[in-house]
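Thread: Newbie trying to understand structure tokens

Hi all, I'm a second-year student working on a class project, and my supervisor (Dr. K.) asked me to get a predicted structure for one chain before our next meeting. I've only ever worked with sequences, so writing a 3D structure as a token string is new to me. If someone could post the tokens and maybe explain what I'm looking at, I'd be very grateful. Here's the chain:
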Amino acid sequence: MKFISAFVLTSLLVLSSAHAQEPTLESAIETYKARTELQNHIDAWQAFVLIADAQPDNEQAQLWCARTSFFLAHRLIQNRKKADGSKTAKPGIECSLRLAKSKPYDGRYWELMNRYKAAATMNLVKAFKAAKPMKEALEQLIAVDPERHEGYVFLAMAYRELPSGISWGDNAKALEYARKGQERAPKDPEAILELAECLKANGKKDEARKYYDAVINDSVAPRDLEWETGDARRWAKRQMKKL
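---
Reply by user tm_fold:
Sure, no problem. This is what the structure looks like when written as tokens:
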């Protein structure tokens, strides 16, 4: 998939071209619905970035840009395209900052999510240094609205993924926050999946199996995140087999 690198390196130039046909939010969403094909995912992301840049006060455009930047970055990194994923996340940071003006929690959440992906190419020393303020930012986000689940789920993931000893990774803490996140959103696929992952990391295989099964059979896809929910369910099935 050599076109990915070429795309990421030139995308902003293409988006800013006076000759490019300007998409609408509706057409970009239609393209995004077919994001199972990677090129459609890329095309939709291009469109959302362009619309968000042209309409800085359009809250929905900023949200779509921020969210799509993160998920495409995640997909590219999973496909071993770390540099491309890191670059893809960066426009999402800008969109998140604009979104934060009208929706502080959502803007800050997606800013942190995109910064997490933008750090994919950092060496370990820089990554661990960047992780400390990330923890503090997530704790502050939770304090803004303790009833929202997203901050707990993200903090649980960070505690689980970061190594202990040389960073602040802590599987027991991860499980504590994952439970809080899932309690606040009992049907959310990402919240349930993170709880299952944290249970597995803590050696609680039987309980982990229960929640992987809940991702597959009992979770409810959030609006406009059906494909991402499908991805979470596929991952849960894979993890179930490993158990």
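A couple of things are worth pointing out once you decode it. The chain is about 75% helix and 0% strand. The two ends are 32 Å apart (CA to CA). Feel free to ask follow-ups in this thread.
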